[in-house]
Amino acid sequence: FMGYMISLSVHSGVAVDKMWSKTPNPDSTLPPPAMGRYGMSLDRFKKLRSILSFGPEDSESFDKDEWCFVRPLLNEFNEHMKESVVPGWLLGVDESMCAWRGAVGKRDIKKCRHRQFVRRKPEPCGVEFKNIGDALSGMILCMEMVEGKAEDLKWEFYKHGEAAKACTMRLAKN
Predict the structure, then answer these.
(1) CB 128 within 8 Å of CB 97
(2) Distances, alpha carbon 99 to alpha carbons 4, 37, 154, 155, in Å
(3) CA angle at residue 121 from 117 to 123, to 5 degrees?
(4) Cα–Cα distance between 130 and 97 in angstroms, integer?
(5) pTM (global) more than 0.70
(6) Which of 8, 20, 68, 163 could tie 61 with a disulfide, CB 3.0–4.6 Å?
(7) Which uninterrupted H or E stretch holds 130?
């Protein structure tokens, strides 16, 4: 299932139903995706997708952290990379986007709490991440979600107007 989700994320802008199509798109020279040929039917994928959810649905968790459905996954990724990878000598800080075309709102796991628009990105609308990576292997070592200016005040190393410097220091520390 997760492999299908990754494949769908690579083909952004294509409807899920069309990814199982066996007939080529008349506006394209590419072959049809025909994802069903790999073993999972569209109906089964939709059923799994409808019951799979991450994070709590109780209001107490949202009161503590409005990103409670994402933060544990991000923290686990960062811890795993910290324990598993010995970085090389050349590190680089960059930003990346996780595209989001759905609803925006608070206190609902089906809505994105904070969405940004970054014109220069291939997928300009979504959640922005700051990350540090090993330039020699191309692996991301640590990621931090951009939650908005109000949240910057709470982070380690933050001084007025120096959010980029504080973020770089936090990423390098991890």
Answers:
(1) yes
(2) 17, 27, 25, 24
(3) 75
(4) 9
(5) no
(6) 68
(7) strand 125-134
Spatial separation of the C-alpha atoms in residues 69 and 63, rounded to whole Å:
12
Identify which of 100, 91, 97 has the alpha carbon closest to the alpha carbon of residue 142.
Answer: 91
Tens of pLDDT, residues 18-33: 888 888 777 777 777 7
Q: Tell me: the pLDDT tens digits for 57-77?
A: 677 777 787 777 788 888 899
Cα–Cα separations (whole angstroms), residue 57 to 53, 67, 114, 135, 168: 10, 12, 18, 38, 33
Q: Please, are residues 153 and 161 in contact by the beta-carbon 8 Å criterion?
A: no
SS3 118: coil
Q: Which two tokens stand for residue 92?
A: 């680089």
Contact between residue 152 and residue 163 where contact means Cβ atoms under 8 Å apart = yes
C-alpha to C-alpha distance for 86 and 136, rounded to whole angstroms: 12
What is the identity of the amino acid at 171? L
Q: Which residue has the tokens 């569209």?
A: 42
What b-and-e string marks burial along 2-39, b requiring 16 or more CB atoms within 10 Å of the CB? eebeeebeeeeeeeeeebbbeeeeeeeeeeebebbeee
What tokens appear for 42 in the block?
A: 């569209």
